[in-house]
Sequence to fold (998 residues):
Amino acid sequence: MAATMTTPAAGYQKLSKRMREVSLLSTISCVLEWDQNTYMPAGALAYRADQLAHLGGRSHRLFTAGAVGELLSECEGYGFGPNTAEGANVREWRHHYERAKKLPPSFVVKFERMKALAYEAWREARAQSKFKLFKPHLVKIVNMVRQKADYFGYETSPYDALLEAYEPGARAERITQLLAELRPAIVALLDQVRERSDSAPEGVCQGTVAAQQAFNQRVAEAIGFDFKAGRIDTTTHPFCNTLGAGDCRLTTRYREGDFTESLYSILHEAGHGLYEQGLPPEHFGTPAGAAVSMGIHESQSRLWENHVGRSRAFWEYWHPIACEYFPQLKNVSAEQLYAKVNRVRPSFIRVDADQVTYDLHIMLRFDMEQKLVSRQLEVADIPGYWNEQFQQMTGLKILKDSDGCLQDVHWSFGGIGYFPTYTLGNLNAAQLMQTARKENPALDADLRQGRYQALLTWLRQRVHQEGSRYRSRELMEKVTGESTNIRHHLELLQARIVS
Amino acid sequence: MAATMTTPAAGYQKLSKRMREVSLLSTISCVLEWDQNTYMPAGALAYRADQLAHLGGRSHRLFTAGAVGELLSECEGYGFGPNTAEGANVREWRHHYERAKKLPPSFVVKFERMKALAYEAWREARAQSKFKLFKPHLVKIVNMVRQKADYFGYETSPYDALLEAYEPGARAERITQLLAELRPAIVALLDQVRERSDSAPEGVCQGTVAAQQAFNQRVAEAIGFDFKAGRIDTTTHPFCNTLGAGDCRLTTRYREGDFTESLYSILHEAGHGLYEQGLPPEHFGTPAGAAVSMGIHESQSRLWENHVGRSRAFWEYWHPIACEYFPQLKNVSAEQLYAKVNRVRPSFIRVDADQVTYDLHIMLRFDMEQKLVSRQLEVADIPGYWNEQFQQMTGLKILKDSDGCLQDVHWSFGGIGYFPTYTLGNLNAAQLMQTARKENPALDADLRQGRYQALLTWLRQRVHQEGSRYRSRELMEKVTGESTNIRHHLELLQARIVS
Fold:
């Protein structure tokens, strides 16, 4: 019987080959999307949308073919162990197959084309801060996303049908509960925050794009990102995407007024990148070689961005090096930089938000997305609702939509259901870091000396190498002994902010 | 009957749809290849080769399906006029279909994968000037190219079977004859060349990469290249490639010691780009919307590079502007720059060669390629044979293979049969320019004032807009009244070099 495990039967090999072909087509789409985001000239848009629609349609047809269903049934009969690579693959393929089958191929093709066009409209709308340029696209997207939820079906909330794509097994109800616990704790923390007098003064973090690029690259290399299998380019919205085996692309944007914005965005994206680069390569193109969920993915990005990057230890080590790139930093101390990057102050842009107010941004989006999907909110009302809610929450008045509802790329690709995974990522990051610290007593000494290998190795062994063999909830319990909760995250905030 | 022409029958529409799908897959491959050439990290290579092999195989299967043959037969019965878009499409599709069918699908997939891997090996070999790094790849390529020629079949020379891919209808015999006429004329010209004392001195053409990029962009824009539908990036070997409708990518390389190298390479590639951007967009993805042949394509690049770019008129207009980018040019005259860029002096690198010795480079490659294909020469003998022949021809001794047999990218993608189209391009360019001048009496006055619109419009109407409605030989006769010959090219050389 053991032989079946090591030499899977012909049906599994056939299925695996087909699924790797589907994955290969998806990565080709990723190359095209990456190019669209980075270098593609504007005039190429309509045809690029055709190319993406074609690939999306073909990949969907290959994936949902009747033969796949038959092979899945055959493989389910083999009795693969539940957390073996084969067992996890069959389980995940079945899950995604059943979902994908519910979408008509014409819908998939239409959605792919729409996404490509909407992205450009969003980029232009954001650049000009004109919601009306994005609005007609967003109306189509929201309508199609609502239709998608109906196709998928759901038990209590249509939002669950969408969330499933990013956090399999999660439910809006549980997210609501976590956020409800988190909110008063954040508000309480905010009351305790005082402006630190020891923070680095405004202006001291200026830096040319070239200096930022060089410094970011050095930091990303230091934490372990492999540039032989990846690179960094410039986009409107930072992201990390895998374009194939050995090909992980990070992007960021630069503001010469403050190098820490691109730095933390690169620490975030490189955190994603380390996860992608740490997945078992022999399983590339199958769930056993893919990330579990976005809630786990965001735990990796937020861990490197916040637990590592915003620590006192980080600046103790990096301050003298940063002075080589930004000479005026000689006029401030590591402690002042630490204070600066941990300053708590409500602000407009989520990706630049401090750790305390960050989840307020998520709460706003989660609330709006649920209302949009359940038809309690229409696209025309988005700017007004956003601005009103944001002001209630933070006291800040939004004067332009690029600081408000146009800031994020997600809706342009139909990614409704994605945002809550950032908060899950925050919670998971704190839990994982707490366990890492417990299991690696030298961890903090390492971090103070700019040594990241032990932490990365631990993450590789406990999280990355697992691929999708466990579902996210199981993985968190297996590694940290707890399911996702707010406790460790609040401990971090308390320690960083108030002490 | 006329209605059939404007509303083609269902079979034609069906065929057209299939062929546009094949073309769309090819453009997706072009995006992947462009990315491989420009930005892809090294570690991504193996998987990129898989992606390209997959797309190549799929596109070949779609193109050679039995249904295509049946649709072609049906369409051939419609009686489309020979030079209508429909007629030309059916003619060209049939031609390519019959050829493609001769290649086994597994051969196509293998060839695509090999190409992707060989390109990287070539790039590395060239960078290190180590032929042995490229050799094992080149052995495979030459073997597969020989096999390809056998699959295609031929009447007299296996080389014809390969040439056909780049210059349909051309024969090695005719090329041999043209080159045999050209060679003594070039040798005679070389005897008359004396070093010009009025040439710009060494060093005066230095310029930073940033200055070169800005100046090249300005020149490319001035001649009419549309940057909303294209861009310029950096690669080891300059090229022009269309990645989709409205998406024409040029590349070049930079040497800070001499800005004119990248300038002329961009004039060359932008010449290709103007052709691609001038093809009728409504026929994109079909022969009626595609270039006729590489011999015509190279006529466009060489026309802008040499007839426009190396003219006295060019530097009369551009010298003061170039001074903004390269201030030390104030110390020389337009006439000195003109003399510099027309200096005749045998040199190692084809793409930087002067107009007189350029075709000697082609003769060497044409001779070697024929011997390689007909098994009179083996890959191991390439460096020795190249160096010996080159020294005989030019008197120059090659000290490193990057100055010799490793300089060109073509063999790495299996492009044996391509090189002669550069000489055809030179001849066609001179013939077209001669006709353009005759039909546009104000042409030279325009060029002196940096006005390129009339020339571009003429090329658009007489060449670009025709797509592949005529075969190259017919097109040349239709536009210039002569078939391709050496006369006008020699007139140009005579006027430029010796006077």
Observations:
- Chain B touches chain A through 36 residues (CB under 8 Å).
- Residues 1-6 of chain B have pLDDT under 50 and may be disordered.
- Residues 28 and 469 of chain B are 25 Å apart (CA to CA).
- The longest helix of chain B spans residues 10-38.
